[in-house]
């Protein structure tokens, strides 16, 4: 099972930026596509306290999670390039 989990939305450009980096680095990850409506994003809210996406979890990361696409891409570059 992949150590990387990504909560995202299919039509979100910020989520696409993260998916592109994951594919570029050929990393396996578990993807959870969240609903468009913030009020329906209960799973990601329970795990992070917020409803915004993308959100990345990685067992190799010191932080509990990252929730900004630029921070996520920078982390992936540092950790896996």
Protein model, in words:
This protein has 81 residues and is an alpha+beta fold. The chain has a domain at 35-61. It has three helices and three strands, in the order βαβαβα. The protein has helices at residues 13-24, 42-48, 69-80, and strands at residues 4-8, 30-33, 55-58. It has a three-stranded mixed beta sheet with strand order 2-1-3, with no helix packed on it. Strand 1 (4-8), helix 1 (13-24) and strand 2 (30-33) form a beta-alpha-beta unit. Helix 1 runs parallel beside helix 3. The chain is globular and about 35 Å long. The two termini are 20 Å apart. The mean pLDDT is 95. InterPro entries: Glutathione_S-Trfase_N (IPR004045), Thioredoxin-like_sf (IPR036249). This is Glutaredoxin.
The number of distinct β-strands equals 3
Our count of helices gives 3
Shape: globular
Order of helices and strands: EHEHEH
Low-confidence residue ranges: none
Q: Give the % helix.
A: 25-40%
Estimated structural class: alpha+beta
Note the gap between the termini. Answer: 20 Å
Average pLDDT, to the nearest integer?
95
Share in β-strands: 15-25%
CA radius of gyration: 12 Å
Biggest sheet architecture: 3 strands, mixed
Strand order of the largest sheet: 2-1-3
Domain GST N-terminal: 2-81
Protein name: Glutaredoxin
Organism: Halovenus carboxidivorans
Pfam families: GST_N_3
């Amino acid at each position: 099972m992949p150590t990387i989990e990504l909560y995202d939305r299919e039509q979100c450009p910020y989520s696409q930026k993260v998916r592109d980096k994951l594919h570029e680095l050929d990393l396996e990850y578990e993807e959870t596509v969240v609903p468009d409506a913030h009020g329906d994003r209960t799973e990601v809210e329970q795990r992070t306290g917020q409803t915004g996406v993308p959100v990345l979890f990685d067992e190799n990361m010191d932080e509990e999670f990252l929730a900004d696409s630029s921070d996520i891409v920078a982390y992936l570059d540092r950790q896996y390039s």
